[in-house]
Amino acid sequence: MFDRRRLLTAAAALPLAACATRYSAGSTTTLKVMTLNIWHDAGDWPTRLKLIADVLRASDADVIALQEILEDKAKNLPNQADTIAALLDGYSVNFTAVDPEGSPKRYGNAILSRLPVIETATKKLEPLNDFRTAIRARVDVGGRVVDVVNTHLAHQPDAGPMRARQITDLLAWLPTNGTPLVVMGDFNAPLEDSGLAGLAARGLQTALPPGAAQTTLVTSRGHSARVIDHIFVERDRFTVNDARTIADQPVGGEYPSDHYGVAATLALR
């Protein structure tokens, strides 16, 4: 099991100013990211665990955002992010939940990274009675620093105003020191939802191409076909080389989750 408290590596010990000098003008630094809501331990978890690990391994992502991570002592269920990372090998794990460490049951979001993690921070989003969180990992991408954020917003169909409040709280919490920013997760809303408008105001745009036809929600489980899982990037800081839906095919009749995932290859400008 990975130690989530181990945040620094030898590379991360470099001063940020020194990191900024490790690439030459005009060079390109690539970052692969992906997001997936794993549907906690619902359905056939042992089978889905293998499928999830296969999908994540195939994505070859540097940083992975996972939602609906469960840790339940009553079920003898270890933290699912730790379990997944152990199958992938080479990824550190940072996890957040509204439940304090040591609680018999914890449910939240995780960031897996095979890049050096310089620092992490977590946030309980307003309103607190919706039990939503965000986690940020500042990672070293070939000598440049990037902030990667994972979150999971309100799910109710009429929760546009609540999602707007959560986005406002999230953006107010994030650093404003010019570090390039990627925000991923299950937003429980399509792009046109008014609750997500604050992201565009911050300069964050979807990585998926306009009019992406593929849904990120598995309709066979009774959900409506909507794109609600997103990767948002600062388009003036990144070029999106590729963005696509993943985990959207069943294997032996089983899907990895009740959500599809989204993966993107980004080039730092």
Question: What does this molecule look like?
Answer:
There is one protein chain. The protein is of the alpha+beta class. Helix content is 17%, strand content 34%. It has 5 helices and 12 strands. Strands 3-4-2-1-12-11 form a 6-stranded mixed sheet. A 6-stranded mixed sheet has the order 5-6-7-8-10-9. Strand 3 (92-97) and strand 4 form a beta hairpin. Helix 2 (45-59) packs across helix 3. The model is unreliable at 1-26 (pLDDT under 50).
Brief synopsis:
The protein has 269 residues and is of the alpha+beta class.
Summarize this structure as a short list of keywords or feature phrases:
269 residues, alpha+beta, 6-stranded mixed beta sheet, 5 helices, globular, disordered N terminus
The whole-angstrom Rg is 18 Å
Q: Report the mean per-residue pLDDT as an integer.
A: 89
In this structure, how is the largest beta sheet organized?
6 strands, mixed
Number of helices: 5
Q: Looking at the structure, what is the overall shape? A: globular
Query: What is the β-strand count?
Result: 12
Q: H/E element string? A: HEHEHEEEEEHEHEEEE
Spans with pLDDT under 50 lasting ≥5 residues?
Answer: 1-26
Give the N-to-C terminal Cα separation.
35 Å
Q: What is the strand arrangement across the widest sheet?
A: 3-4-2-1-12-11
Q: Helical content, roughly? A: 10-25%
Global structural class? alpha+beta
Write the layout of secondary structure elements.
Elements: H1 16-19, E1 29-37, H2 45-59, E2 63-72, H3 80-88, E3 92-97, E4 105-113, E5 117-124, E6 133-141, E7 144-152, H4 160-173, E8 181-186, H5 197-201, E9 204-206, E10 229-234, E11 238-246, E12 261-268
Parallel strand pairs: 1-2, 7-8
Antiparallel strand pairs: 1-12, 2-4, 3-4, 5-6, 6-7, 8-10, 9-10, 11-12
Helix pairs in contact: 2-3
